[in-house]
Automatic annotation (TrEMBL), chain A:
This is Carbohydrate ABC transporter substrate-binding protein, CUT1 family. It is found in: Periplasm. The keyword Transmembrane applies. Keywords: Membrane, Periplasm, Signal, Transmembrane, Transmembrane helix, Transport. InterPro entries: Bact_solute-bd_prot1 (IPR050490), SBP (IPR006059), TAT_signal (IPR006311), TAT_signal_bac_arc (IPR019546). GO terms for cellular component: periplasmic space. The keyword Cell wall biogenesis/degradation does not apply. Belongs to the bacterial solute-binding protein 1 family. The chain crosses the membrane at residues 12-32. It comes from Bosea lathyri. CDD domains: PBP2_TMBP_like (cd13585). The lineage of its organism: Bacteria, Pseudomonadati, Pseudomonadota, Alphaproteobacteria, Hyphomicrobiales. Coiled coil: none annotated. Gene3D superfamilies: Periplasmic binding protein-like II (3.40.190.10). SUPFAM superfamilies: Periplasmic binding protein-like II (SSF53850).
Automatic annotation (TrEMBL), chain B:
It comes from Bosea lathyri. Keywords: Membrane, Transmembrane, Transmembrane helix, Transport. It holds the Pfam family BPD_transp_1. It is a multi-pass membrane protein. The chain crosses the membrane at residues 30-51, 91-112, 124-144, 182-201, 222-240, 278-302. SUPFAM superfamilies: MetI-like. This is Carbohydrate ABC transporter membrane protein 1, CUT1 family. The keyword Transport applies. GO terms for cellular component: plasma membrane. It comes from the Bacteria. PANTHER family: GLUCOSE IMPORT SYSTEM PERMEASE PROTEIN GLCT (PTHR43759:SF1), TREHALOSE TRANSPORT SYSTEM PERMEASE PROTEIN SUGA (PTHR43759).
Length: 450, 310
C-alpha cells in the first residue's frame, strides 16, 4: 500500500496544482482569508467557542500556534493550546484519557508509540464521518491528498481513522560527502555494504567514526527495527506474534552491533539522537542512520561544520527487501470533548495544504499531504538541496512501520533496548534477543487481554 | 477534666461572667482547632499512603481496572533482576554521594574557617554550584561529558591523559554521576560544617596548645568531636537527597547505558509513568518506604549518639 504513495500520477499532479495555489496563497494571508470567506463553507458556525489543544513541544507545534490568530480570525473560535515536552505529553495524554474527561478537545499523539493504546482506550473520535460530512468539512480540505502510507499507518485495525497523520518521519542515512570523496568511497548499495563502507571510513586516529547511530536503551530499538525491515519483516507478524528471536532479527542485531561497535564513536552506547546529531554535525562521523526530521540543524552554519557537505541517502536495501522505517504523528479529537465540531474545524485548518507546505518550508518535518512535495516553489527555495527531497520522496515510496503496532511499545523498546545495549557491550546477540523475547512475550499477551 | 475543675472551683466565688464559668466545656471545643491540620495530614499523608498500600496489592494499569493479587507484586519484584540490580545501584550511588561530599565539604569548611586573603569571595564562588537548578546542571554536564566533543576530554588531553567515556560507559557511569553530585552538593556540607566550626569555643584549643598538642591532635581530639553533630546533620540531609536523587540521573543517563545507572527511583519512574503499571510501581514505593524508614531510624540513632558524645 505504501509503494504507490506520492507517485506522480495525473491525479497527484492535479493535487499538486492545488497545492501550488495554496503555496501562493500562504504568501498572502489576506488572499487566503478572502478566498476562504468567498467559499460557501461556513467557518464561522462555532464562533465564540474556545477549544483546548494538547501539543508536543516541537517546531511543528510552534507553526500551529503561530497560525492560531489566523484560525481565530477565520472561525471566531479561540484556541488555548499547550505545548508539553514529548515524554511528558505522552504521560499527560495517557492519564487524562484514562480519566474519561480529558482537559483538551484536540491532542497530538505519536502513532508509532500510542496508536494501539489510543484504539484500546477509545481516546479519539472516528474522523471518517466528519470527513464525509460536507457541512462540517471545507471543500478545500481534500482528505485524499494525504499519502496512502501515512493514512494506512493512522488507520486502526477496525478501519476507523481516529487521527489525521500530519507528520511523517522516514529513516534514512545522512552521510558526509567530503569524507566519502576523500577516501573515494561510494554510498553503500545494500545493508551489508554499509558495514564495509563504514569500516573504510572509520579513522579513530583522526576522530572520525565510520558510522553513528543511537546506542542508548529504548532509543536504539528503531535502528535495529529499521535494519530488520531489510529482511522483509517487522518485529511482530501481522497476527501480532513476536519475530524478535528469529534468525532475521539476530541478523539485524549483528549488523547493528557490527556497525556501532566496530565503526562507531567511543561511548556511543550512551548516545541518543542528539549526541549522534552533534557528532555528525561536527564532521566526526561519516554516516548517521536516523529520521529525516533531524536534518534542519545540519544545514545551519551557526550550528554545523558540514553545511553543504551532507548527503541524504535512502536506507539501503537489505538481503530480502528495501524499506525505510516509518514513524508518524497524528492529531485527533478527544472522544470526551463537548466541542467536537469546533475541534474538527481546528484540525482541518492545522492540517490544511497551506499549513503542510509551511511545515516543509520551515524544515519542521515531512508533511503527510502528498501535494506539499509537489510545491516547486517551496522546494526551490529550500535550504535543502534536490537530494534531500529525492531522499524524502524515495523513502516515502518504500516506507514501512518499523516499530510494532502494539499497546506496550515503550516496554518493548525498553526490554529490547537493554538487549541491544548488552550486545554492544559484547554479549551474544541471539542470546540477548531470545532472553528479551522471553521477558516481553507475557507482557504482550497480557496487554491484549484486559 | 481534672485541670478545668481545679480552675473553675477558685473562680466561682469571684462571680465571673457566665461564659467563663462554662470553661469546663471548652476542652472539647479546642479539638476543633486541630481539625484543619488533621484533615490535611489525612488528605496529604495518610490517605495517599493507604491508597498506595491498596494499589500495591492490585494488578492495575492506567486505563484498566484493578485486580486484587495480594502480595504477588512484591513476590514478582524480588524475582525481577532489574529491581534487584536497581537496589544495588541505589546503594552504590547513595554511599558515594554521601561519603564524598561530606569528606570534601568538611575539608573545605576547615579551609574556609581560617583567615586568608579573598576568603569571602572564594567562599561565595565555592557555594555557587549549590544555587544552580539540578536539571540545568545536568544538561551542562551532559555536554561536557561528550566523549568526542566534551570539554572534559579536551582538558584531559592538555595534561596528556587519553579520552574517557564518562557517562557513556557502564563501568564509569555511576562514579561520573557522583562527580556531578560532589560538585553540586559539597558546598551544602561545607556551609553546615562551617556553621559548626564558627560556634566552637577557643578555650579547649588554648589548653591543648599549653599541653603541647599539635594541629592534628587538636583536630582529631577537639575539632572533630565538637563538630561531629553538625557533620551528622549533613550526613542525614545528604542521605535523604542521595536516596531520592532522580533529576540529575534521569537527565544525564536516563538510567543507562543499558541499566547501568538505573536506581530505584528511575526503575519506579519507568514502571509508573512509562509502562503505567501502577500496582507494581506502588509495591516498589512500599519497599522503598521501608528502606527509607530503616535508614532514617539508623541515622537518627547515630545523630542522637553523636549529641551525647559531644
Amino acid at each position: 500500500m505504501t509503494k504507490d504513495i506520492l507517485k506522480p500520477t495525473r491525479r497527484t499532479l492535479l493535487r499538486g496544482a492545488t497545492a501550488l495555489g495554496a503555496a501562493g496563497a500562504i504568501g498572502s494571508p489576506l488572499v487566503l482569508r478572502e478566498a476562504r470567506a468567498q467559499a460557501a463553507f461556513n467557518w464561522k458556525r462555532f464562533s465564540g467557542t474556545t477549544i483546548d489543544v494538547l501539543l508536543v513541544k516541537n517546531p511543528r507545534s510552534d507553526l500551529m500556534q503561530a497560525a492560531e490568530k489566523e484560525f481565530t480570525e477565520l472561525t471566531g473560535i479561540k484556541v488555548s493550546a499547550e505545548q508539553v515536552p514529548e515524554q511528558q505529553q505522552r504521560q499527560k495524554a495517557v492519564i487524562e484519557f484514562a480519566s474519561g474527561k480529558p482537559s483538551f478537545d484536540v491532542s497530538g499523539i505519536s502513532l508509532h508509540v500510542q496508536k494501539r493504546m489510543a484504539a484500546k482506550g477509545k481516546w479519539f473520535e472516528d474522523l471518517t464521518p466528519y470527513i464525509k460530512d460536507a457541512s462540517l468539512t471545507s471543500p478545500d480540505f481534500n482528505f485524499d491528498d494525504f499519502g496512502a502510507g501515512p493514512v494506512a499507518y493512522a488507520r486502526q485495525a477496525d478501519g476507523s481513522l481516529d487521527t489525521i497523520p500530519f507528520f511523517v518521519d522516514y529513516w534514512m542515512v545522512y552521510y558526509n560527502k567530503e569524507l566519502f570523496a576523500a577516501k573515494g568511497v561510494e554510498y553503500p548499495k545494500n545493508m551489508d555494504e554499509m558495514a564495509t563502507v563504514a569500516a573504510k571510513l572509520h579513522d579513530p586516529a583522526k576522530g572520525i567514526a565510520g558510522f553513528v547511530s543511537r546506542g542508548l536503551k529504548n532509543a536504539n530499538v528503531p535502528v535495529w527495527a529499521s535494519l530488520l525491515l531489510g529482511q522483509g519483516i517487522e518485529t511482530t507478524s501481522p497476527e501480532g506474534k513476536l519475530l524478535t528471536d528469529t534468525p532475521e532479527a539476530a541478523w539485524a542485531g549483528e549488523l547493528y552491533k557490527k556497525l556501532n561497535r566496530d565503526t562507531g564513536p567511543a561511548g556511543q552506547v550512551g548516545f541518543n539522537w542528539n549526541e549522534c546529531q552533534t557528532t555528525f554535525m561536527q564532521g566526526r562521523a561519516a554516516m548517521w542512520l536516523d529520521g529525516i526530521g533531524f536534518a534542519t540543524p545540519l544545514e545551519d552554519p551557526t550550528k554545523s561544520r558540514i553545511v553543504g557537505k551532507v548527503g541524504y541517502g535512502i536506507t539501503p536495501p537489505g538481503p530480502k527487501a528495501h524499506h525505510a522505517g516509518m514513524f508518524a504523528d497524528g492529531m485527533g479529537i478527544s472522544r470526551g470533548s463537548q466541542k467536537k465540531q469546533a475541534a474538527w474545524l481546528y484540525l482541518q485548518f492545522m492540517t490544511s495544504k497551506a499549513q503542510q507546505i509551511a511545515m516543509l518550508k520551515a524544515g519542521a518535518g515531512a508533511p503527510g499531504r502528498a501535494s506539499a512535495y509537489l510545491d516547486t516553489d517551496t522546494i526551490s527555495q529550500s535550504k535543502f538541496g534536490k537530494q534531500y527531497f529525492e531522499c524524502l520522496l524515495g523513502s516515502a515510496k518504500v516506507a514501512r512501520a518499523a516499530l510494532p503496532q502494539i499497546v506496550p511499545v515503550t516496554e518493548f523498546r525498553d526490554v529490547f533496548g537493554v538487549a541491544l545495549t548488552n550486545a554492544l557491550g559484547g554479549a551474544d546477540v541471539a542470546a540477548e534477543l531470545k532472553k528479551a523475547t522471553e521477558t516481553f512475550a507475557p507482557v504482550l499477551v497480557k496487554s491484549e487481554q484486559g | 477534666m481534672t485541670a478545668t475543675t481545679t480552675i473553675s472551683q477558685p473562680l466561682a466565688p469571684l462571680q465571673q461572667p457566665a461564659t467563663f464559668t462554662h470553661s469546663a466545656d471548652f476542652t472539647p471545643r479546642y479539638w476543633l482547632f486541630s481539625v484543619p491540620a488533621v484533615v490535611i495530614v489525612i488528605g496529604v499523608i495518610v490517605f495517599p499512603w493507604l491508597f498506595t498500600l491498596y494499589m500495591s496489592g492490585h494488578d492495575w494499569k492506567i486505563g484498566g481496572g484493578p485486580e486484587f493479587v495480594g502480595l504477588q507484586n512484591f513476590a514478582e519484584l524480588f524475582r525481577d533482576a532489574r529491581f534487584i540490580e536497581s537496589m544495588g545501584h541505589t546503594a552504590y550511588f547513595t554511599i558515594l554521594a554521601v561519603v564524598l561530599p561530606v569528606f570534601f565539604g568538611t575539608a573545605a569548611a576547615l579551609v574556609f574557617h581560617r583567615e586568608f586573603p579573598f576568603r569571602g569571595v572564594l567562599r561565595t564562588i565555592f557555594v555557587m554550584p549549590m544555587m544552580a537548578t539540578p536539571v540545568a546542571v545536568a544538561l551542562v554536564w551532559t555536554m561536557m561529558f561528550h566523549p568526542q566533543l566534551g570539554v572534559l576530554n579536551y582538558l584531559l588531553s592538555l595534561v596528556g591523559i587519553g579520552p574517557q567515556n564518562w557517562v557513556y560507559d557502564p563501568n564509569t557511569v555511576i562514579p561520573t554521576l557522583i562527580l556531578v553530585e560532589v560538585w553540586h552538593w559539597t558546598p551544602l556540607v561545607m556551609l553546615i560544617v562551617l556553621g559548626g566550626l564558627a560556634g566552637l569555643p577557643r578555650e579547649p584549643y588554648e589548653s591543648a596548645l599549653i599541653d603541647g598538642a599539635n594541629s592534628w591532635h587538636m583536630f582529631r581530639h577537639i575539632t572533630l568531636p565538637l563538630v561531629w553533630p553538625f557533620i551528622m546533620v549533613a550526613i542525614v540531609i545528604r542521605s535523604i537527597d542521595a536516596l531520592k536523587a532522580f533529576d540529575t540521573i534521569f537527565v544525564i543517563t536516563q538510567g543507562g547505558p543499558g541499566t547501568a545507572s538505573e536506581t530505584l527511583n528511575i526503575f519506579l519512574y519507568l514502571q509508573a509513568f512509562q509502562f503505567y503499571k501502577i500496582g507494581y510501581a506502588s509495591a516498589v514505593v512500599v519497599i522503598f518506604f521501608v528502606i527509607i524508614i530503616m535508614l532514617s531510624l539508623l541515622l537518627l540513632y547515630a545523630r542522637q549518639k553523636s549529641k551525647w558524645n559531644a
